[in-house]
Amino acid sequence: MATQVRHNISLKDRTTFHVDVNARHWADFSSPEELVYYYRSERWTAVPKLVLSGGSNVLLLSDFPGLVLHPAIRGIEVVAEEADSVLVRAGAGEKWDDFVSEAVRRGWHGIENLSWIPGYVGTSPIQNIGAYGVEAGDVVEKVEYWDRKDGKSHVLENRSCGFAYRDSVFKQALRDRAVVTHVLFRLRKAPGFVLTYPDLNAALSGETAVTLARVREAVIRIRKQKLPDPAQLGNAGSFFKNPRVDAEVFQTLKMRHPEIPGFFLDDGGVKIPAGWLVQRCGWKGFREKDVGVFEDHALILVNHGRASGRQILTLAEKIEASVADRFGIRLEPEVTILT
Ligand code: NAP
């Protein structure tokens, strides 16, 4: 079995940062069997591989000398139905927001707050995508993946996925091993809206009856207002994770910087918005040649046109250093950096 392999492919429009690098080879895979073919066939076994979905959370630093594998496994099907929920199996190659749109259309609750997030279904558990108080890990029941190391297919239950803030086992122990092929989501038939975030709460405050469609519309409207469209301005959303500190550390910071915001977490720690820290260090709207920080949101690094991955990374490192210097906090990239 061989699907079509293309050669010398520009990746400029294959990642949302629009960094101008190339891949030596490119192939879509539309089934787990096609994926396995590239790892087993004599022609491709020894060739280095990179699995790239929507490219919305990666920064590429250089040309990729091997084969890029792009998930194109499609399909959204109900595999089980209970009185109050449905279990939906979606292919890794479904666009995330198409899946959310379909869920809203069919009256399935649970992912409406995750509307308009770029990327694919297959990467949603890897990054444990989150927005407005909801994370993929809240609704993922199982993840089906193929393991590059043992050459076998596996199904991982939610409790074994290691879901944490923008993190999972797929970014830790299974990094560079698991290729997600399908994700199973448990979605509710009845509402249970999460409207705790101020922007979303305010957008729906005048509503007499909140519905799935209204929440989706509001999230899309807010995101479009606040975040740059990658088609117009290269970016990968939030570049840094929101750091977490101990409550005592937060109290000390609060004494030195009384206006510092913090959200107290169930584990006793405190989450500090990284965007606030970056903005306080004066980076919002910064630009040097074609690399910069978005003028309306300090957490978003942008490519104004011809920035290289290296230039974007250099700016990220300068930002990290200034935040560390001023607040003693080490920022960590949320974006995956590929050398
Ligand atoms: P925002 O509403 O301006 O809030 C700033 C930060 O404060 C967020 O990072 C959020 O943390 C935190 N926060 C706000 N209200 C909170 C609450 N009630 N409880 C706990 N934490 C709270 O944030 P924004 O930049 O416009 O983003 C809105 C949502 O979309 C956030 O959840 C954000 O993570 C998500 N988003 C994700 C990306 C991405 O690339 N991954 C890009 C843009 C936005 P959290 O980030 O932990 O939620």
The distinct bound ligands, ions and cofactors come out as: NADP nicotinamide-adenine-dinucleotide phosphate
- Give the count of helical stretches: 8
Q: Give the averaged pLDDT, no decimals.
A: 96
Q: Which sequence of strands runs across the widest sheet? A: 6-7-12-10-11
Helix content: 10-25%
Task: Explain the overall architecture.
- By secondary structure, the protein is α+β, with helices and mostly antiparallel strands.
- It has helices at 32-40, 96-105, 124-127, 198-203, 212-226, 247-256, 274-280, 309-327; strands spanning 5-10, 22-29, 49-51, 58-60, 64-71, 76-81, 85-91, 130-131, 134-135, 140-147, 153-157, 178-188, 234-235, 244-245, 263-264, 270-271, 287-288, 291-293, 301-303, 336-338.
- The strands form six sheets. Strands 6-7-12-10-11 form a five-stranded antiparallel β-sheet, with no helix packed on it. A four-stranded mixed β-sheet has the order 1-2-5-3.
- It is globular.
- It starts with a strand and ends with a strand.
- The model has no long low-confidence stretch (mean pLDDT 96).
- Bound molecules: NADP nicotinamide-adenine-dinucleotide phosphate.
- The site of NADP nicotinamide-adenine-dinucleotide phosphate has 17 residues, from β8 and α4.
Topology (SSEs and partners):
Elements lengths: L4 E6 L11 E8 L2 H9 L8 E3 L6 E3 L3 E8 L4 E6 L3 E7 L4 H10 L18 H4 L2 E2 L2 E2 L4 E8 L5 E5 L20 E11 L9 H6 L8 H15 L7 E2 L8 E2 L1 H10 L6 E2 L5 E2 L2 H7 L6 E2 L2 E3 L7 E3 L5 H19 L8 E3 L1
Parallel strand pairs: 2-5, 3-5, 4-20
Antiparallel strand pairs: 1-2, 6-7, 7-12, 8-9, 10-11, 10-12, 13-19, 14-16, 15-16, 17-18, 18-19
The structure holds NADP nicotinamide-adenine-dinucleotide phosphate.
The site of NADP nicotinamide-adenine-dinucleotide phosphate (NAP) has 17 residues, from strand 8 and helix 4.
